[in-house]
Design brief:
The protein is of the alpha+beta class and 344 residues long. It has helices spanning 36-46, 110-127, 176-192, and strands spanning 8-9, 26-29, 55-57, 63-65, 83-88, 141-144, 212-214, 223-224, 231-232, 243-244, 249-259, 266-276, 283-287, 291-294, 300-309, 318-327, 333-343.
Length: 344
């Protein structure tokens, strides 16, 4: 059997009739257009007669496993015998209600990202899948449903082959916001590969076992940017620090809404660690990799995730995690910012 340690066992009945996996090309990310509980109820009702996925991830990072990964799950249509599938919650609760007729799926939150990383690390380690992003539907690694959808990213020459992942043309699953987060999810999984859970029981320690969660409120104060210079951003009234570092590992996430950024202009976002002590000059002492986003006709939205672990401050100083932005635009302004983190 291939059961992930730490996942809630929701194995559907009569899985053997699905047939064994033919190969392990990769891991495919989906979105539910619903909640984990609702999807679980549907899968339990239909069993392996309907369409099902190997894994499900809930709003708060819960992980359900519906199908043993040695068997096929049907979420990827003709490619189901070659792909491990992960469904993810996106509706209700903190996601709110949104127009499901369009490409409006909200971003994965920090708890979901941590759970997805766990599944990817376990699945790739146990099934010899490279932890790399798929550039086309024929690659090996980590991909998303729309890559194999007719009328979307699937080339016409591959219709009717194992690379056709949906019978319905034009599907955008898991949505543009979530697709934009996949490069960082892959990067996080590459960093977590050494700490994959292979023991009989999951550990409550380390970067992939975080338990402390902060949702963070949306801060809507207008923040002008200076062209060609990095600027530390306020995440609340008078506050720049996302968290105070105490030696624990963390996964931090920031969402920005930007106006005035033209299509030929860019914004870059990065996390930094800063040495802070009241009444003294703050010193930036560590810089993480940056993410770049091009402008759009209206508002521009950017999501950036960072995993890390830093030491405590010394001599009465504390190390703080902050976020900075840089742009080549004269008119770009940040109109809202939200941060979330997992820690411990």
């Amino acid at each position: 059997m291939a059961i992930m340690p730490g996942a809630v066992n929701k194995l559907l009945a009569n899985q053997a009739r699905q047939g064994l996996m033919k190969s392990y090309q990769g891991v495919c990310l989906h979105t539910m257009v619903g909640s984990l509980a609702g999807t679980d109820s549907m899968f339990e009702k239909d069993g392996t007669v309907g369409t099902e996925s190997h894994f499900g991830v809930g709003e708060h990072g819960e992980i359900y496993q519906w199908v043993d990964t040695k068997y096929t799950a049907d979420a990827n249509y003709l490619g189901s015998g070659h792909v491990i599938s992960i469904e993810t919650a996106d509706y209700g609760g903190s996601f709110g209600r949104w127009n499901t007729a369009g490409d409006n799926v909200p971003y994965w939150n920090a708890a979901q990202i941590a759970a997805i990383v766990k599944i990817i690390v376990w699945a790739c380690t146990n099934h010899d899948i490279p932890i790399q992003q798929m550039k086309t539907v024929r690659d090996r690694g980590i991909g998303y449903h729309a890559m194999g959808v007719p009328g979307n990213e699937l080339p016409n020459s591959l219709r009717g082959t194992r690379y056709q992942w949906s019978k319905y043309a034009g599907k955008v699953c898991p949505g543009k916001n979530r697709i934009s987060q996949i490069p960082e999810i892959v990067r996080l999984a590459q960093g977590g590969a050494a700490s994959s859970d292979t023991a009989p029981a999951p550990k409550k320690e380390g970067i992939l076992g975080m338990t402390k969660y902060s949702g963070g409120k949306i801060y809507k104060a207008l923040q002008a940017l200076t062209r060609g210079k990095w600027k530390s951003l306020y995440i609340g009234k008078g506050s720049m620090s996302i968290l105070t570092c105490d030696g624990s590992p963390y996964l931090a996430q920031v969402y920005l809404t930007v106006t005035g950024l033209k299509p030929d202009e860019t914004i870059q976002v990065r996390f930094i660690t800063a040495s802070y002590k009241k009444g003294t000059t703050t010193k930036n002492n560590g810089y993480y990799a940056k993410q770049e986003q091009h402008g759009s006709g209206g508002g521009t939205y950017i999501s950036h995730t960072q995993i890390g672990k830093t030491s405590k401050g010394k001599n009465g100083r504390s190390n703080r995690l902050r976020v900075q932005a840089w742009t080549d635009s004269k008119t770009a302004k940040i109109t809202s910012i939200q941060t979330k983190f997992l820690k411990g």
